Amino acid sequence: METSTSQSTADALDKGGILKNKIKVLKKMYPHTRSVLLPALHAAQQLYGWLSEDAIEQVSRLTGVTTADVKGVVTFYSLFKTKPLGRHVIYLCTNVACLIMGADTLEEYLGKTYGISHGETSADGRFSLVIMECIGACDKAPAMLVNDDCHFNISMDNIQQIMESYR
Amino acid sequence: MIELTIDDIKVKVEKGQTILQAALANNIYIPHMCWDPRLKPYGGCRMCLVEIEGQPRPLASCSYPADNGMIVRTNTPRVAKLRKTMVELLLIHHPLDCPTCDKAGQCSLQDLSHQHGPSQNRIQEEKHSVARRTRNPFIERNQSRCILCGKCVAVCWEHQGVGAINFIGRGFDTKVSPAFEEVLDCEFCGQCVDICPVGALGNKPFKHSCSTWFLESSDNICPYCSVGCTVTLDTREGKIVSTRGIATKGVNKGDLCVKGRYGMDFIYAENRLKKPLVRKNGGLVETTWEDAMHVLAVRLNDVIRDKGPGRVGVIGSPKFSNESNYMLQEFARKVIGTNNIDSSACFGFSKVQKAVSQVFGLSSLPISLDSPIGKGAVLVIESDITSTHPVWGLKFLEARKKGSKIIVLGPRETKLSRHSDVWLRVRPGTSHALLNGIMHLAIEGAYHLKNHMSTAATNFSELEELVKGYPPGRAAEIAGVDTDEFIEMAKVYLTAESRMAALSLGSVENNKGLNTAISAANLVMLTGDGPSALQMPADYANTFGMWQMGISPENLPGYKKIEGSPGKNLFQMLYGKKPLDALLIMGDDPLSTYPDLKKVEEALRNLQLLIVQDIRLTDTARLAHIVLPEASWAEKEGTFTNAAGLHQTTEKISTPTGDSIAGWQIFRNLTRYMNSTPPFESLTALRDHLSDMPIDKGKEKWQYVPVHYEEVEPVDKQYPFIMVTGNLMQHSGALSVMSKNLSEAFPGAFIQINDTDAARLGITDGSTVRVESRRGAATVTVEVTDEVTQGMIFAPINFATARLNELTYAYEGGGAPLTAVSIQQVQSA
Ligand code: SF4
Ligand code: SF4
Ligand code: SF4
Ligand code: FES
Ligand code: FES
Fold it and tell me: Which of B89, B274, B284, B323 has a CA between 20 and 30 Å from the CA of residue B685?
C-alpha cells in the first residue's frame, strides 16, 4: 500500500523515453540519486513546460525519490511551475533593493498593461508574472528575468521596449 | 568515554552522543520538541538551547556533540528568556484549540507553554486555518496545529522507509501532506501520529473518545507477531481507548506497526464467544460450564474407551499463551494419554526447528532483533520481513543506513527490495537453488574465506559434491536471473566483512520449504559464520513459546525428545488415510488458514467428537460438537515468548467477555471432570513450574545436510501460474480479521497479478477472477501490479471468505509447496 505511481501514466507522458534517457545520464554524474532530483526536475520542466502531477510521478519513478519528497522540492522553489504558464514568464524581483528602486511601479505597470498579478497569466497566454525574492542583481536594481534572460536597471522608460521583444 | 559537566553535575557518556542525550541519560531534563532518539537531529525548534562555557551564543543541545571538559548550563536566565520567545513564536499561528484537541494533556507545546511560555503573546498575526484531512481509515491531519518540527516526515522516511508525507509548500503555507493532497495511502504504521508533539496528526479510531487525563495507561505485549512489541494501552474503565509506543519501553523502543497500533480492538469483536456451546439436535446452543464440561468428559471418555487414546488428537495455538499451551499438552499427554499433539507450525516453524536440529544439533535457534545492525551483508531469502515482522524489519533499514549491504532474493517487490543494494527477482521458490549456487562459488573461489570455512564438519565432501551441480549458469537459470548478476550478488555476500541470512517460514508461506532452511543453514556454516548468522523468526506472537511448551508430536516441554514413537502430526491427523475420531482444537481455525480446505473439512466432518476452544465463533467452531469460550489476550494474564526467546508477561486489563475463562483454568477444570487430578491448582503454581522448567538446548554439532532443489508442483499448460501465498502487513490470520479497524481499512480478499500477464489475459484491475488449481477454485478480486513478476500470483491467505486455501495442499517433503493455478476473469470491475 505504498503511494507508488502507476507506471502506465508516467510512460504515456514520456512517449519517446526522452526524460528517461536524460535522467539516466544525470544519474551517472552524481554520487547520490537524490542529488539528481533538481536537474531532473529542470529537465522535466523544460520538456513539458510545467510540472504536472504526472510529470512529478514520472520524476519520482525515474529517480527513486518518493512523490511526496519530489512535490516538496517542487513547491519549495518558485522557479518550478506547478501549473501551465504563459509563453513567456516574467520573474520580477520585489525585494528591498529593487523595491526602493521602483519595482512596485513596474509591478503596477505589468498589471495594468497585461492584466496580470503574481501567479497569473494574461488572457492571450502571452505573459505570466511570478514575483521573486532577490535574484542577486541588487546593484543593477530593479531587475527581472523573462524566461532565461536577465534585464537590469529597468525603468518606466525601457520596460515597454523590453516587453515588446517577447511576442 | 567523555566527561562533561551539566548543571554542576559531572556526567559520563559515550563519544558521539549529543549534549541532550548526555543530559537525558543522566536524568537532567532539557526541553526539546523536534528531537527523537530514532532520528537524525533536525535542530528546528530551538527549545533545547543551552549555554556552554566559552561559547558566545547558546547552542542547540540536540545536535551539538558532547565533548570532554564541557561545562553546560541548561537553565540560565538567558536560555529561559530565549525559550519563552521560542514558545511565543510557535504560538503566533497556532490555533490554540486545545479544548477540542485529542492531544491536549499529552501535548509538548501545551506543556512547554505552561512551563516556559509567556502568558500573553506580544505578536498578533494570522492564525493557521487549514482544512482537516480525514479521508483515510486511520490518520486525521489537522495541519492548522502543525509547528513544522519535521518529525513526522523524518520518521516516515528515515526510520520507516516509506516517505508518504513531506512538507509541501513554503513559508506560512507549508503543510505536511502526501504529494498531491490526495487521500493518505500508506502502510499506516501510525509512527507519525505518535511522534507528532502536537495534535496535528491524530488517530482516527480513537478520535474524541476520551480526554487524556481520564485515561489510565498500562503496558502489554502485542498479541500479533513474534517481535513481541510492548504496547502502551490507554484505557478508560477497562476499555482500550488508544495504543501507543513509548521510546523507553520494550524490545521495540516505541516502534509499532499498523496491527500493534490499530488492531487491538479485536477483543471487542461481535463474534466473541460468551458462553460454552453444545450441539443439540443439530444446532449449537448456549449452556453452562458445568453442562459443557460434563458432556465433554463423558463423550471424550467414550472415544478413549471405545477407540483408544491414539484416536484422539489436540491442536495448540501460536496465538495463545504458554500457560494455555502447556496445560493443553499436559491434558493430552496425562489425561487423554496421547502424543497426537501439533499445531499450524507444522506448515511453518517446524521447518525451522528441523533444519536447526539437523544441521546444528540445536533444539532451537532464537533470533536476535539487533542482528542486522553492523553486518557487512544481509541476505534476505524470499521473505517479506517488513510485512511479517514489521518492527524487526525496521532494523534492516537501520542496518542499511549504517552501511550494511542488503541483498534481497524474491520475485515480489517489498519494502526491503526497495531499500536493497542488490535485488534479484528470482522465480518463486527457487532461492534454494541460488543458495546452493553461492556455496558452489564459495568453495570454488572464495579464497579469503578458506581459513574460516567449516570443512571439518560432517558431510563436507557430500555437500561439496552436491553443490558442484550448481554452477552459476545453472543456479541462475533455475532462478530465472542473469548469471552475471547472480555472480555479482554472491560476491557482495561472500566478500563482506560479516554476514547474515534471514528468512521467515510462516505457516501460510509456501515459497520456502524445509530444504530452503537447511540450505541456508549449510551456507552460514560453510562461510564459518555459524548459527547466529541465520535468523529464522517464529511467526506468531507465541509460536516460539508454544513449541517450547511441548506442542509437538515429538517433543515434550523444554524440547525434551519423546522416548519411543512420536505421536501423529498434523499431516497424519487431518490429511492422512485414517484421520482421527476426536480432536480438540485450541485457538486455531483450520478451515480458514490450513491448506487443502476440502480435505480438512472432510476430516473435521468425519470426527465423532470435535471440541473447539477459542475466543470467537470461527468457521471451524461452527462444525464443532462442543465449543468452549476462552478469555482473550488482555482479559487474562499470560506469557508470550517472542522470536528471540524472550518470555514476556501479558497483563489483564479488561474483564473477560461473557463467561469466558483462561485456558489453564479450562484444562484444570476439565481434568477434574475426567476424574483426574490437575497438575496445578493455581496460576502461580503453574507459572512457578514453567519458570523452573529445564530447557534441553541440544548438543551443538555441525553437520551438513546436502539437499537438492526440487520443484514440487510444476506449472503446465492447464495451470500456467505459480501461486505464492503469504501474509500482508495489515493482516496475519485470525486476530486481525476480528479487528474492526483493520478490516474496515483492508477489507476483502484479493490476489495480485503482473500487469503484462493481465494485459495478455484481458484481466483488468479490480475485476473478479476465478483462480483454479488441481484441487479447487476460488473467486476473488484482482489487483494488477508490477509488484509481482510474470507467471506469478500472490495471494494473501488470511481472508477466510475467499477460501483460497481450497487451492493449496499440505506437503511434508522438503520442497516449497507452491501451487500451480490458472486464472480467468469472470466479471469486470
Ligand atoms: S502512518 Fe506511517 S507510513 Fe503512513 S505517513 Fe505516517 S509514518 Fe508514514
Ligand atoms: S504534523 Fe506534527 S510531527 Fe509533523 S511537522 Fe507538524 S507538528 Fe511536527
Ligand atoms: S511488529 Fe509485531 S509485535 Fe510489533 S506491533 Fe507489529 S505485530 Fe505487534
Ligand atoms: S533585491 Fe532585487 S535583485 Fe536583490
Ligand atoms: S530539540 Fe533541539 S532544536 Fe528542537
Answer: B274
Instruction: Report whether pLDDT(B214) > 90.
Output: no
Please name the residue of chain B whose CA is at the shortest distance from the CA of residue A2.
Answer: B186
Residue with cell 491427523: B573
B86 or B123, which is more confident: B86
Rounded Cα–Cα distance for residues B216 and B21 (Å): 29
Residue of B168, B185, B188 with shortest CB distance to A72: B168
Q: Domains in chain B, start-ordered, CATH in brackets?
A: 2-75 (3.10.20.740), 124-268 (3.30.70.20), 277-348+541-691 (3.40.50.740), 368-535 (3.40.228.10), 721-827 (2.40.40.20)
User: What are the boundaries of each domain within chain A?
Assistant: 2-76, 88-164
Distance CA B328, CA B342 (A): 11
User: Has residue B327 got a pLDDT over 50?
Assistant: yes
Which residue reads 560453510 in cell numbers?
Answer: B526
Choices 3.30.70, 1.20.1440, 1.10.10, 1.10.3470: CATH for A2-76: 1.10.10
Query: Are the C-beta atoms of B95 and B109 separated by less than 8 Å?
Result: no
ipTM strictly over 0.85? no
| H-helix segments, B15-154 | 19-25, 77-93, 108-116, 151-154
CA of B195 to the centre of ligand 1 (A): 11
Contact present, B630 and B267 (Cβ < 8 Å): no
Contact, A118 vs A85, CB < 8 A? no
Q: Do B179 and A1 touch (CB under 8 A)?
A: no
Dihedrals phi, psi of B579, to nearest 5 degrees = -65, 180
pTM of this prediction?
0.91
CATH topology of domain A88-164: Glutaredoxin (3.40.30)
Chain A segment 60-79 residues within 8 A of B by beta carbon are 60, 66-72, 75-76
What percent of chain A is modeled with pLDDT above 70?
93
| Contact between B164 and A56 using a beta-carbon 8 Å cutoff | no
List all residues 6 or more positions away from B85 whose beta carbon is below 8 Å from its beta carbon: none
pLDDT of A9 over the 70 cut: no
d(CA B200, CA B29) in angstroms, rounded, equals 25
